[in-house]
Each structure stands twice: as structure tokens, then as C-alpha cells.
Amino acid sequence: MTWLQREIPLPPLPRGIHSITQRVVETIPELSTIRVGLLHVFLQHTSASLTINENADPDVLVDLDRALDVLAPEDFGYQHTIEGRDDMPGHVKSSLLGCSLTIPIRDGRLCLGTWQGICLCEHRRRSSGRRLVVTMQGES
């Protein structure tokens, strides 16, 4: 059984939903040696989130971001406002989507569907970058 853990720093990204599949896969070249296993991706932040979603048509990610704005609008009347108008909606969106993903591995590849990709959802207008912790376990 092989175990591996790495931290992946992500640069500051604009508000929106961004495909990060390639960045994650490039960080763990050992993935190609795993016959069967799991990859766990954990985001160390509370105002951003992770999701698996469409990786082909970028309009899907734009529409998803717009829908999240309806669910957690900035003008809701939150009590927590000290970090800016976009902070508390970011926390709500992060709670709705979550901060971790677990993806099966088979024959050296992530078992994502044809149109699926790993996405970072940046809910703040300004971030100083984000950090992921990826943990892989599996059998060669």
C-alpha cells in the first residue's frame, strides 16, 4: 500500500469557479503507478470550496457561480461583516459545496467521468491564494 501527501499552493484566482484538475494531477506524478486507490483533496480555507463539475463547457461554471450568488447573496443582512461584504456569502457557499473531495483511482488515472473536472470555487473578490492538501493511497 502506497501513501503520499502533498500540499499544493494555488495562486490568487479571481472570483468564480476554476478547473484545477490538471494542476492537481501534475503535482502527483506517482498517480501513474497506482492500480487501484483513492485521492483525497482538501481545501484549507473557509470562504472557498471544491466541487466536481463540468470540465468541457465553461458556461456551466459561470452559471453555477451565478446560481450560488442567488443562494447566498451579499445583501442578505449577515451579522458577520467585519471581513467585507463577500466574506460571509463565501462561508455559506463553502458550507453548501464543501472543502474536500475523494476521487477513485484506477490504472494510474483519476476515475472522473468524461465531462468531469475538479474545480476550485473562489467566493471572494480578492484572495491571497489558496492551499490544497492532497492525500493519495493505493496499490501499485
Report on this model:
A five-stranded antiparallel β-sheet has the order 1-8-3-5-6, with helices on one face. 23% of the residues lie in helices and 39% in strands. It is elongated, with a radius of gyration of 16 Å. It has one domain (2-139): YjbQ-like (Jelly Rolls, Sandwich). The protein is of the alpha+beta class and 140 residues long.
- Largest beta-sheet details: 5 strands, antiparallel
Secondary-structure element string: EEHEEHHEEEE
- Poorly predicted regions are none
**Helix content, binned percent:** 10-25%
Number of domains: 1
* CATH homologous superfamily assignment: YjbQ-like
Short description:
The chain has helices spanning 21-27, 58-71, 87-97, and strands at residues 2-10, 16-19, 36-43, 48-54, 100-106, 109-110, 116-122, 130-139. The chain has 140 residues and is an alpha+beta fold. The chain has one domain (2-139): Jelly Rolls.
